[in-house]
Amino acid sequence: LRLLWAQARSRPVSVSLAAMPIAAYGSSLSRHNTEEAPLDSLDKMTVPYKQQERRLSTFPPPLKDVRIMMASYITLTQILGFIGIFFIPYCKIATLWWAFVLWPISGFGITGGAHRLWAHRSYKASFAYRAVVMLCNSIANQGTIFHWSRDHRTHHFHSETVADPHDAIRGFWFAHMGWLYLKKDPRVAEAGRKVNVDDLKEDSLVMFQHKYDPWWNFFWCFFMPGLVAQYAWGETFWNGFFVPGCLRYVWVLHCTWMVNSGAHLWGARPYDPQSNPAENRLVAILAIGEGWHNWHHKYPFDYAASEYGVFTQFNPTKLVIDLCAALGLVSDRKRATAMWAREKARMDDSKSR
User: What residues form the membrane-spanning segments (predicted)?
Assistant: First the structure.
């Protein structure tokens, strides 16, 4: 088996990601990090980047490296979120519950939407389902689905290399939020341009949101929570704006960012010990099921993003997708458990010899 694998890895590959058809995207991800196929174009593209030096991250960064508009926006929202803390005592109980409920609602727009549905295409969904999840994603307001998915595909194709948009090897601060403050490394931009996003361009909902960016997301993220609180139970608009709007927004941002930072730095690595992403229970709780990251990077096409079911590993995102599948809104959920079982059997057989 080792000899066959060595021969497979030595075969030259001439396929480029830019030329890869859409149908090949899912199949390439399903083969990635397994021993069931020869070296594919994703690995081929990653090799040169692994051999290049990283730019060291410093804090505070030099002004010339800062994206002024993005840095100003993120800093402003952090301040607004902090101010929101002082509005909590003046809010009605219904408003606090509204803020709490918007955490998983907006979070699912990222985890079940931009991540598992659009970036990885790990399952299929009806138009009605996708429309609702697009709205959830807009409440999360982490950029458009189009940009989020493109950057996330780049991250998986070049994970932990200089072409990774939020390379965790550069440290916690960079992986968590520094990558948004700083100008992209040219190699990140180059890798992003080569990612196939034709499927995203063909999705009318994705492109609708993208067309009206940023005002569409701003309304759903900041103003909708305040308007609902004001007209549904008589809350002041500003209490609704600052607590279910700004404070909740900043909280969900950091929960998502912890997947890029904490889940790449701390935790067990039972599926791929050579990979930096780890199984992190705290991150799974904060990001409603996204913390089982060693499994996810080994099998990124798996819609569950974890090995076990929801009663063993905290994964509300999987539960919602499964419930929607029972209602006929979701189909073609891809799983990697059989693949992992075969790999474990091969490893056990190898150890016994």
Answer: 70-90, 96-114
